[in-house]
Each structure stands twice: as C-alpha cells, then as structure tokens.
Design brief:
about 400 residues, seven-stranded mixed sheet, 2 domains, Rossmann fold, FAD/NAD(P)-binding domain, 17 strands, four-stranded parallel sheet
C-alpha cells in the first residue's frame, strides 16, 4: 500500500499529474470520489478565452502573466505551458485529436446557438468554426431534452430537425444512451438516411455532441458518407460526452502504464507529522483503509469537487486544512450583480513557484505535498475561460516538481 506518489482528485489536473508521474516511472495511486468535472463541462480545452480571435495565444499569455503575477500561469510561463499542452495532446494522436488553429482562440458553436472562444478543439467539433448562417441543418433527437435543435437553428437562421431514434420512439433519452446507440452501425445508418431525406441544399449538418465514445470520428465519417455533406458536433448541456472521452482515454493509458485507480470513495483523513504527510485514509464504510506515499498531489477542484468548503464565516480546505487565500469577510465574497467578478472565485491555496502550499507569509505548510488544478488561488477560471488549461498545466508540472524530473 506504499506509493511513490498519491494523487487526490480524478479530474483533468489529477489525470495529467498521473500521466506525468507514470512517464517518469513512479508507482502511482490516483484517488477520487467520482470521475471529476470532465463529464460535466469539458467539450474543448480552454486556455484563456478572453482574447480576440486574431491574437496569438503566446502573445496574450505573455501579457496576461505580466499583468497577473499571482495567477497559476505566472508560476510557470509560456514554455512550460506549451510543454504541458503537448503532453496532453500526445494522448490523442489517432483520428480523434485536439487541434489549435494558427495558435489562436477560435469561436465554436454552442448548444444555445451562440459562439464562444476555444483554443484546443476536438476534430469532431472543429468544422463548426467555419460554418455560415442559413446554409445548414441542425439535428436533434425526440426524447432528448438537453439539446433544442430548433432553438439553435433559429439563432443561425437555418433549419432545425428532430429525429426519432430507431426502437426508442417516444422514450426519454440521455446523452450517454444516444452516444452508445451511435456506435451501432444500424442505428446511425437509419438516422443518417432520415437526415438525407431532409437535405435541401444544405452544406453542413450539426448534431449534438453525442457521436459515440470509442471512435467518434468513425461515427462522423459514417454519417457523412450517407448524408453527403459535412457533419460536426455541437456541445450540449451536461453531461459532456467529449469530456467523458477524455477521461476514458486517460484511464485506458494510465492503467496500461501501471497507475492504480481508486474511484468511488473520498479521502477522509490525512496523517501529518512535522509538516510531512505520511499517509491518507480512505473511507470504505464501515471500514477505512490507509495508503502511504513519499509524495502527495492535492487536485480535487474547488467547491464542486469538494476541495474547498465554506461555512458562514470562512472557506477552508477539506483534507489537510491548508491555509486558504480568501476575501476578509463573507460580505466580500459576492458582488451586487450575478454577472460581477465575485471575489469568492479567487479563493484557493497559495503556493511557491514549485506548487508547494504556503501560508500568506510564504512559509511552507507541508513539505511533501504539491497543489494542482482549480483549487489554486489567484484565478477565476469561469470568467477567464481557463479551467482546462490551468488543470493540464499545473497537473503536469506538480508531478514533475514532486518527482524532481
């Protein structure tokens, strides 16, 4: 039960840390109470979504780092950010890849019929950056309540179409159910033929992002061969099938490379002695099991992942009771308007340049623990549209720093 490195958190930052550690030959255990927020939000990899399309990401980040010295990106710099992104993309070298267009953010279509910036875009979605209003068909499915084809089509001034899924007429369907059905050649063939009968000069067809788990590019190409025009995915409301694809690919690679997974139970206690964590305890009601390691990475996310918790007076960290940088009083947590930049979103763990936790004076809180992901202080990943970038970059480097590689 002893490991070189234990990673707490199975989101993107924890997965990246595990990959980096496995490549260094470490014995790794990754622990999570679920599969992280990938399944909720991630359709693309957003690095920093506040720049105009024509700005190169490298130029924008240089200025951002200069203007935001406490931001997680400022702990690393562009070269290290680029190295971590290259490591992430190396997992997706088959037909389903993540691409950057000219090193810039590009606008992609959303399930609300609006456009938002993204940096690394899956190959099933990327066609949507070049579409033109009024020249396409948006397809939804009857019984699938998380995507409204007619609403999206109205925003684009094109046609919408809702199809019945073979053998599931008048039944409520989930994104995961449709994704599994799409992997059946008979189902997607029948759907494609329904669409082909409706084509009236359109040059593209947009589907909700449910084109299978295992080989979405095969599903995409199969639909295109029958329909006769370009097909692409449009991100939907949670759950995110593209996010699940990312998790599945990481899990497959990590298991093949000797990483141990423990999913379904949360860390209930940490055994700390003189600023060193010796082991953590995982609850398996009615029992508890301890796991020891030389090093630990904390990457559970903020409030959604349970890394931070709040009471009526303060925000605290859930496992090690690390110092949390936060507004002085609860009255300062939120602005007067929903769309304000709420200061609570800046709360998190302070670290040194090597991502080890510190207090406000810069003194190390723990010597063999490193921090990764959105639990870090100094960012508002929601407003910045930087969540995946922060998770990838800090997860990768937290493991590198921890192992001295």
């Amino acid at each position: 039960m002893h490991y070189d490195l234990i990673i707490i958190g199975t989101g993107l930052s924890g997965l990246m840390a595990a990959k980096s550690a496995a490549e260094a030959g470490a014995k790794v255990l990754i622990i999570g109470k679920g599969i992280g927020s990938l399944c909720l939000f991630s359709n693309t990899i957003d690095i920093l979504g506040i720049f105009p399309e024509e700005m190169k990401m490298v130029d924008g980040l240089f200025q951002w780092i200069k203007d935001h010295p406490t931001h997680p990106y400022s702990r690393l710099g562009w070269e290290k950010i680029g190295e971590a992104l290259t490591s992430f993309r190396s997992l997706f070298q088959s037909r389903y890849t993540f691409k950057s267009i000219d090193g810039e953010n590009r606008l992609i279509l959303t399930g609300a019929g609006t456009f938002r910036p993204a940096y690394l875009i899956p190959s099933t979605i990327i066609t949507g950056i070049s579409l033109r209003n009024g020249n396409g068909l948006v397809v939804g499915f009857k019984g699938f309540k998380d995507f409204y084809a007619n609403y999206v089509a109205d925003q684009l001034k094109c046609r919408g179409l809702n199809l019945s899924v073979p053998e599931f007429q008048d039944q409520e369907l989930t994104a995961t159910a449709i994704a599994r059905l799409m992997e059946k050649e008979s189902v997607r063939g029948a759907l494609a033929r329904q669409v082909k009968e409706q084509i009236d000069g359109e040059s593209w067809v947009g589907f909700p992002a449910v084109l299978g788990f295992q080989d979405p590019m095969k599903v995409k190409k199969g639909l295109e061969e029958i329909i006769g025009c370009e097909v692409f995915e449009i991100p939907t409301l949670p759950p995110s099938i593209p996010g699940m694809r990312i998790f599945r690919r990481f899990r497959e690679w990590l298991i093949q490379n000797g990483v141990s997974f423990l999913i379904g139970h949360s860390v209930s206690n940490a055994m700390v002695n003189r600023k060193r964590c010796e082991a953590i305890e995982v609850s398996h009601p009615p029992l508890a099991q301890s796991y020891s390691a030389d090093r630990f990475i904390l990457a559970p996310g903020r409030f959604i992942g349970g890394g931070l918790k709040a009471d009526e007076e303060r925000v605290s960290e859930s496992i090690f009771n690390l110092p949390v940088s936060q507004p002085g009083s609860r009255q300062d947590w939120f602005g007067n308007s929903f769309f304000n930049n709420h200061r609570i979103h800046q709360a998190g763990i302070l670290t040194d340049l090597s991502l080890r936790p510190t207090d406000e004076r810069g003194e190390h809180a723990l010597e063999n623990v490193w921090i990764a992901g959105t639990i870090l202080a100094g960012h508002n990943s929601i407003q910045e549209r930087s969540r995946e970038g922060i998770e990838i970059v800090t997860g990768y480097w937290a493991a590198r720093y921890a192992l001295g590689t």
